[in-house]
């Protein structure tokens, strides 16, 4: 494919990412997030919901090892890992970024597929803590060149008892990396985790006291004689 055509496809893909991500709104909060991410600060993002698609842009620009894992995205459940993986596949269709989803509750065939993706060095690994540790314990996963470590729904992960698992995974990561935590709340456990794995992080709060603008909340009073 000619280089000019590749560039056009990439620009269209990035435009689609912009249009489909509610987090890309031009607000003071989002400008603060973008500034901190570009400065490669460790970052705590306190928000209701959303996922940062700029990762694909960073990875597709080059400068990262092609034969190693460049990003780890941690998710608390298999369902969320699958959802993130589906979004990743859609956005990376025309971009030179590979990904693999690593989660439990499947058969040996899928386990081998996950192993192959991990050993070949997928750019992005979307994983649940338990299954990633299972692969790490077998000795064939190299996380020494990871540049980005993302915790999605970090508060939920801690509620499910994954604190020790996260800390175990962090031991396999290089000290020089960018870490981003997404959390709807900031209880003491999350603050403790942030202090443990982040170095002087920036904190950006997004609509923590109300749902996203497009969500409408309403209540209807119904009586027994109404159908």
Quick description:
By secondary structure, this protein is α/β, with parallel strands linked by helices. It has helices at residues 3-20, 28-38, 54-60, 78-91, 108-120, 129-137, 154-159, 163-170, 188-197; strands at residues 43-46, 71-74, 99-102, 124-127, 148-151, 178-183, 202-205.
| Estimated radius of gyration | 19 Å
**Please, how many helices?**
9
How is the main sheet built? Answer: 7 strands, parallel
- What's the overall geometry? globular
Strand content: 5-15%
Main-sheet strand order equals: 3-4-2-5-6-1-7
Oligomeric composition of the shown chains: single chain
Order of helices and strands: HHEHEHEHEHEHHEHE
What are the low-pLDDT stretches, counting only 5+ consecutive residues below 50? 5-26, 45-52
**Mean pLDDT rating:** 76
Number of strands: 7
Coarse structural class: alpha/beta
Helical proportion? 40-55%
Distance between the termini: 61 Å
Primary descriptors:
42% helix; 227 residues; 7-stranded parallel beta sheet; alpha/beta
Architecture overview:
Helix content is 42%, strand content 13%. The chain is built from nine helices and seven strands; from the N terminus they run H-H-E-H-E-H-E-H-E-H-E-H-H-E-H-E. Strand 3, helix 5 (108-120) and strand 4 (124-127) form a beta-alpha-beta unit. It is globular, with a radius of gyration of 19 Å. It has a seven-stranded parallel sheet, with helices on both faces. The protein is of the alpha/beta class. It has helices at 3-20, 28-38, 54-60, 78-91, 108-120, 129-137, 154-159, 163-170, 188-197, and strands at 43-46, 71-74, 99-102, 124-127, 148-151, 178-183, 202-205. Residues 5-26 and 45-52 have low confidence and may be disordered.
